[in-house]
Structures are given as structure tokens and as C-alpha cells.
Design brief:
There is one protein chain. The radius of gyration is 18 Å and the shape is globular. It is mainly β. The N terminus and C terminus are likely disordered. Helix 1 packs antiparallel against helix 3. Strands 5, 7, 8, 9, 10, 11, 12, 13, 15 and 22 form a 10-stranded mixed sheet that branches. It contains 3 helices and 23 strands.
Length: 330
């Protein structure tokens, strides 16, 4: 893929279409994009739901309409406010996820193959992840379990979806179905949209999360119920170590914090980072900002055209530097 370098101020624009293909990396000429509501398991789930905290409910019927744009923007996994949640409440039950996969070795093996770890390492891998909620409609490669193997399909996860993210802020598990996630796949044509939909869905507002350049020690998340900012430590599976923190200067997406919000704590903001070499599951670096989403919901999905996952590759087409652009219509 040819890269056109230039100066990027607001963020990285990914001039590609992300849609279904037969693997978790590379490009393809066409396919479908499967929209998934935040609190529905969807087809071929790996496990029963392990989501504990969700902010949306389905209401709007699905619509089989083509995407209106072929540009998707990237946002760094370290961006303050990219994720949300409730203070001292994990969005996912990590131990329930561990037990569910341990009870079914075949699924555990398939899950491990997608995430690129050994089956015996799945419990430790899951416990290294951090439970949060999406605050933007987000494109990913989702994976179902069918016929004894992992299948993959391109999906948009609705704002409010409970996920587990890695040390670079990249979504790795969708908790409503226990499915492993990998970065989205770039495609050359506009995909057909299927599955759920919600009133606020706009293709131009969908983002793909780019791995942060350094390991994130503390995620700065927004708690809409308390209208406050929270520092959540990497790998804190139950939120017990959550602490109030300063509102970020430029959260993405932006929020309207009321005047009744708690005052910033006297302590230093915990949004520090450590070298990427400390993470056992590194990703390629890149970063940017993105636009605000709207809040909404969706309804029963159609069946995605899943195919067996052909690789455990966790790389993507989005590891370009901030100064790089790909031309629209790729």
C-alpha cells in the first residue's frame, strides 16, 4: 500500500474501507461490515456474556445500506477519554471469561490462536488486559466460533460495548460474547453494511484504535454516571484500584463536564506511561485524535458471512506513522 507522507495535526486519517476478508490482516476487494450492538452477544459467541457494565440498549431495526464513505480515522489507544466505565466497577468479569474458556479446551485453543498466545497462557493473557467501555463506534476484526474453529468478520462495535484492552489500548476481547478481537482489515471498496444499527451511527464517526507508542500504566477513562474522570490501572480486572484524576485538556471524544463535577485531586495525575518493552503483548505504534460519537442503540443482528480465521497475526494496516496518510478510495 502506497503511503503519502504529510503533516498531520488533528490525527491520522485512514483512507481505506474496513470490511470482511478471509484473514486478520491484509486487504481485499469487497465484503460486508457487520454492526454489533453493545449488549447483544451476536452470532457464534465463544462464551456466554461476561459483560458487567453496559450503557446502551437495542431499539433500532437493522438496515442493509451500503457505507457512504470509505475513510476511517484512527485514534491512539492512550487517548484520554477514548474509553469509559464506572469507577470501581469493571465492565467485564475476567475470571468468568477465564473459567468459561478453561471449561472448553477446543474454544480455548481457538481463542489462543487468534490472540497469538499458547493455550496454557490464555488465563494470564486475559488477566493482563483492562476492562473498559468504548466511547466511540469502533471497527475491529471480530471472531466467532463455528465448526471447531475461529471465524473472522469485520465489525463495528457500538459505543458502550464492554471490552478488554491490551497494554497499548487496543481492544482484544468483546465481553458480550467472549470473542477475541484483532485490528480491522483494510479493503479497497465500500462494504455492504449488515447486522444491527443505531440512530446515531455515522460511518464518518467510526474509528479504529491504533496501538499507543508506549505501554499504558493508567488509562484515563470517563465515568458518565458520576460525571468524573478516573484513572484505571492496566490489568486491574475489578476496578478496585480506580482513582479520581484530573480532567484531560483534550479528551477524545469530548464530554461536557458539569460545574458540579468533583474537583481534581491533590495528587499527580496517574496517566504515566512506561517503555513499550515492558508489555508482554506489544503492538505496532501509531496515534491520533478522533471526533465525538453520539449515544444510541440497536436491534437483532443478521448473520455475518464469517470465514475460518487463517492467521493469528495481530498486526494491521494501521501501523503507519502520524505523518503518513493513505489516499481515500484505496
Amino acid at each position: 500500500m502506497a503511503l503519502i507522507t504529510g503533516v498531520v495535526v488533528a490525527g491520522v486519517v485512514l483512507g481505506v474501507v474496513l470490511a470482511r476478508s478471509g484473514g486478520t490482516s491484509g486487504t481485499a476487494s469487497g465484503g460486508e461490515l457487520f454492526l454489533q450492538a453493545a449488549n447483544r452477544p451476536g452470532p457464534d459467541p465463544f462464551t456466554e456474556s461476561t459483560a458487567k457494565d453496559s450503557s446502551t440498549t437495542p431499539v433500532t431495526p437493522a438496515a442493509n445500506a451500503p457505507e457512504s464513505a470509505n475513510v476511517t480515522r484512527g485514534v491512539s489507544g492512550s487517548t484520554p477519554g477514548l474509553y469509559g466505565g464506572t469507577r470501581n466497577t469493571a465492565s467485564c468479569d475476567v475470571e468468568k471469561q477465564v473459567k468459561a474458556l478453561q471449561a472448553e479446551p477446543a474454544k480455548n485453543k481457538a481463542f489462543a490462536s487468534v490472540e497469538g498466545v499458547q493455550p496454557s497462557a490464555v488465563p494470564a493473557y486475559l488477566r493482563s488486559l483492562t476492562p473498559v467501555q468504548l466511547r466511540m463506534d469502533t471497527r475491529v476484526t471480530n471472531h466467532g466460533y463455528r465448526g471447531g474453529a475461529a471465524t473472522d468478520y469485520q465489525a463495528v462495535l457500538q459505543t458502550g460495548t464492554a471490552v478488554l484492552v491490551d497494554g497499548h489500548g487496543v481492544p482484544r476481547v468483546r465481553c458480550a460474547c467472549g470473542n477475541p478481537l484483532t485490528p480491522a482489515v483494510a479493503q479497497r471498496t465500500v462494504p455492504r453494511r449488515t447486522g444491527d444499527t443505531w440512530a446515531s451511527y455515522r460511518s464518518q464517526n467510526v474509528v479504529v484504535v491504533l496501538p499507543a507508542t508506549t505501554t499504558i500504566d493508567v488509562f484515563v477513562i470517563y465515568d458518565p454516571q458520576a460525571d468524573e474522570w478516573v484513572g484505571r490501572h492496566r490489568g486491574d480486572s475489578d476496578g478496585r484500584r480506580d482513582e479520581k484524576t484530573y480532567p484531560p485538556a483534550k479528551p477524545s471524544p469530548a464530554v461536557s463536564v458539569s460545574s458540579a463535577s468533583p474537583k481534581p485531586p491533590a495528587s499527580k495525575s496517574p496517566a504515566s506511561k512506561s517503555p513499550a518493552s515492558e508489555s508482554p503483548y506489544p503492538s505496532d505504534p501509531s496515534s491520533s485524535d478522533a471526533s465525538s460519537p453520539s449515544t444510541s442503540s440497536s436491534s437483532d443482528p443478521e448473520y455475518p458471512s464469517s470465514e475460518p480465521a487463517t492467521t493469528a497475526d495481530t498486526s494491521s494496516s494501521y501501523d503507519a506513522p502520524e505523518s503518513a496518510l493513505t489516499p481515500p478510495g484505496y
